[in-house]
Amino acid sequence: MTALQRLIRHPWSLGLLAIGIVLALWWLITGSGSVNKLFLPAPQAVWQAGQQQWSSGMLLQDAVASTRRVFLGFALSAGLALPVGIAMGSNAVICRLLEPLMGLIRYMPAPAFIPLLIIYFGLDELPKVLLIFIGTFFFNTLMIMDAVKFVPRELIETARTLGGRTLPILVRVVAPFIAPQVLDAYRINMASAWNLVIVAELVAATEGLGKRISLAQRFLRTDEIFLGLIVIGLIGLLIDLGFRLLMRRACRWAN
Amino acid sequence: MHLQISNVSKTFGWGARRKQVLRQVSFHVHTGDFVALVGSSGSGKSTMMRLIAGLEQPSSGGITLNGRAVRGPGADRGMVFQNYSLYPWLTAEQNVAFGMELQGRNRRDVRERSAYFLDVVGLADAARRLPRELSGGMQQRVAIARALAAEPQVLLLDEPFGALDIQIRESMQEFLHDLWQRTGLTAVLITHDLEEALLLAGTVHILAPSPGRIVRSVTVSHDRSAMAHLRLSPAFLELREDLAQCLRGLEPALSA
Predict the structure, then answer these.
(1) Are strands B187-191 and B34-38 parallel, antiparallel or unpaired?
(2) What whole-number distance in Å separates Cα of residue A5 and Cα of residue A3?
(3) Are B81 and A168 in contact (CB < 8 Å)?
(4) What ipTM was reported for this prediction?
């Protein structure tokens, strides 16, 4: 196999190629001068804006602020969704009690809660963290519940005939079996968490990547808007890869 | 050990959907016995097993183990299911250890006994492998080792070889017979395979379908030292054919 063939077969090469083509087109279009650079800033301008924000420490500060909110809100959501989802999936009474309620709230768009959250909790961190919680908790819970319902009956009954009681079975049979689906649910819903943190920051914040974008709009700094979008995309991609890595490490049996 | 099943009936559903699955089934199992229940699908044999395991409750009648009523599942009645019962995230050794850990045995004990029982089923070399890396027959042997390691008073085998290829089935039957002789276990086997029942069990109960009930019970006493020969011996084949006819006569669609 030649080096070129190896390169093409590498799982990442085609994806990187597509990204490269988009970057090249961007660079060509802005270079040709056919588009007003106020609407489409050149890659170099975005890069410069990045360097500037980085050296002033603003970029890191914003990224940390947004990431912190996402992690706090999502940790709260994921941590609570796990026991509630398992309880709903393994107990018919709890399921019938909570599923309609959750199904209803799930369809309420989380951003619509922002005005209420601001009235209740002001403009601090808490309403933003809670928004992420509201926007992801119900999806996380229902996805975990579904995973629990698909645990093969034989696995649970075997544990029962070996003398297992309810709680040890939930911890030692149900939890490990659903681990891959739970991690996948978290990975998917993490994307919503990122959406919501930006929305929350657009509405009310003093720092954060979303806040920076909304300020940039006020001053027509499209280069900074592009910068914000790209940084958000990159952080999201990193988190996604992190989840995939974790899954591959922790759930080797499921691959 | 004395397992007594007395006049057990089981009905599922209500109203128009009400269906009696078992009617007035009685039999017993003593220490060291190997008892088989044979029947076609619809004979309620799986339900019978689940009742003994305590996974379901009888509608009427009673099941007692050493005089005490069976009210739920417990480690005194180990069960081996037809398939999908190994924990896919645990190695063979960890699967065998699973029941003992649930029972709260100390670690050293668990480790030694897991190794011992894996050896008993001939899988000492596969200790570190995950279930998906084992063949179907090997998986069932791990499941049997896991059930035995929990020290049940009676081993319930629910079509344990039903999902295996015929050649592997035969070698597993020999393995199980050998295991029974070596370890002196007590077993209840359910199967739709008459030959399997006659090869392994000292007592065979024939179940008729819809509703399931015992219509015939035979005591089997062949020389089982050479199972391959036994399968073809005239006396064995005669008994097998006799019972096969009995089973065929129970199928409503075919006898009509």
Answers:
(1) parallel
(2) 6
(3) no
(4) 0.88
